[in-house]
Write a structure and sequence with these properties.
Strand content: 15-25%
CATH class of the largest domain: Alpha Beta
CATH architecture of the largest domain: Alpha-Beta Barrel
Bound molecules: pyridoxal-5'-phosphate
Number of strands: 20
Number of helices: 11
Number of domains: 2
Largest sheet: 10 strands, mixed
CATH topology of the largest domain: TIM Barrel
Helix content: 25-40%
Radius of gyration: 23 Å
Length: about 425
């Protein structure tokens, strides 16, 4: 067994990010790590942040749920993202602690009254979303001081919109129906300093038309309620690039959103916001896994459904893969499925994942585009995995990108191992 700490023991006591920087997966595979290693590309997250900050025609809030890593939060902050969409008191505390100067927006429409009170009185949160009169009452009472209602609330009413253009639906659980909107908007107007409307078109929206259609809903609601609206928040849903799910350029989404916003009767005085999660962090991380066994075209690897591959297992998403060997294989590509390390049949990723036909036990595979909803979903089920695992910063380009060529500028502390 190699002597590097990567190879020591099967269950490290603590998670860590290695202090060295490597040029890519091959450097790490040479150390023969026993456990999956997360390869982090801060330069890719920074490029995404700069892209949204410079090109989205309004303000971009990072949706923390997509990847709550404090390292990533700092990269986005340094890239110019000043506002954060938080959905739980845990996320409120995390972002307040990591980025004390950030502006937090509590955008979960169903919150515990205690969470609202702590967010408002303890962390300075002033922006909340809601989709019912009951939630409005909760916010008003939790934010009052000595029985006096707060006068500095920004309240965003979530509108239910279709998810038909998106790969992951968010159309059922949250959002007020058109029939409820007038009463809700009028009541929220009374309780707010700034009033807004927000929606979510579903995650990984494959066409900009999703936003145009949702904006029509927003326009109808504003006209019917005849209230002044200060903020329109088009939510998340901005896509990333995965095998078989290559979206149009993000500029096309921004153009459609800008055009739809300009047509709203309130555009001259209102702010436009968005809440990207996936698009800001999908390219941030990939995972280096080891093959433990091959059975025909099934590879048993050391990460899976209960680790970073939740989406690959549960919704059948394909992620880009590459075999990481010192010498390239010249064997023809072959389609594989993966089994993860736990004892469950469910720990199965159907793929198909295209790899050279001679891949086998002891080989390392890099699985790309796992920065969004990959690391964030990891569990310790069955004694595998750890909260964050082992991470190493690498400087090469992500396996796919919507932001052009995003390899890191050369650095003097890159080690070739
Ligand atoms: C309220 C809200 N905003 C933003 C996001 C981020 O969405 P995405 O990662 O698709 O951009 C989510 C995801 O669930 C959400 O619920």
């Amino acid at each position: 067994m190699a002597e590097h700490p990567f190879a020591l023991g099967l269950a490290p006591r603590s998670d860590r990010t290695e202090s060295f920087v490597a040029s890519g997966a091959a450097d790490i595979a040479r150390l023969k790590p026993v456990q999956p290693v997360t390869l982090l590309r801060p330069h890719a997250a920074r490029a995404a942040a700069r892209f949204f900050v410079e090109k989205f025609p309004g303000k971009s809030l990072y949706a923390v749920k997509a990847n709550p890593s404090p390292d990533l939060l700092r990269v986005l902050w340094d890239g110019g993202v000043t506002h954060y969409d938080v959905a739980s008191i845990g996320e409120v505390r995390l972002v307040s602690e990591t980025l004390p100067d950030a502006t937090l927006c509590f955008m979960h429409p169903v919150k515990a009254v205690e969470a609202i009170a702590e967010a408002y009185h303890g962390h300075g949160v002033r922006t909340f979303s809601l989709d019912s009169l009951e939630e409005l009452d909760k916010i008003v009472s939790a934010c009052a001081t000595d029985g006096v209602a707060a006068s500095d609330l920004n309240l965003l009413v979530r509108v239910r919109v279709s998810s038909e253009h998106s790969k992951l639906s968010l159309a059922s659980k949250f959002g007020a129906d058109p029939s409820e909107l007038k009463a809700l908007l009028m009541a929220a107007r009374q309780a707010s300093d700034a009033l807004g409307l927000c929606f979510h078109v579903g995650s990984q929206a494959m066409t900009p038309a999703a936003y145009a259609e949702a904006m029509n809903r927003v326009r109808d609601a504003i006209v019917e309620a005849a209230v002044t609206v200060d903020i329109v928040d088009v939510g998340g849903g901005f896509p990333s690039s995965y095998p078989g799910m290559e979206p149009p350029p993000l500029e096309a989404y921004f153009a459609v959103i800008h055009e739809s916003f300009e047509k709203l009767p309130i555009s001259y005085s209102a702010e436009l916001w968005c809440e990207p999660g996936r698009a800001l962090c999908a390219e941030y991380a990939s995972v280096l896994v080891r093959v433990e066994k091959r059975r025909g075209d099934e590879l048993y690897i050391n990460d899976g459904a209960y680790g970073t591959l939740f989406d690959a297992a549960h919704i059948g998403w394909r992620f880009p893969v590459r075999l990481v060997r010192d010498e390239d294989s010249d064997t023809r590509p072959h389609s594989f499925s993966f089994y993860g390390p736990t004892c469950d049949d469910l720990d199965h990723m159907v793929g198909p994942f295209e790899l050279p036909g001679d891949v086998g036990p002891g080989d390392y595979i890099e699985i790309g585009m796992l920065g969004a909803y990959g690391s964030a979903m990891r569990t310790r089920f069955n004694g595998f995995g750890s909260a964050n695992g082992w991470s190493v910063v690498v400087t090469d380009a992500p396996m796919a990108s919507l932001y052009g060529d995003v390899a890191a500028p050369s650095r003097s502390n890159v080690v070739t191992l």
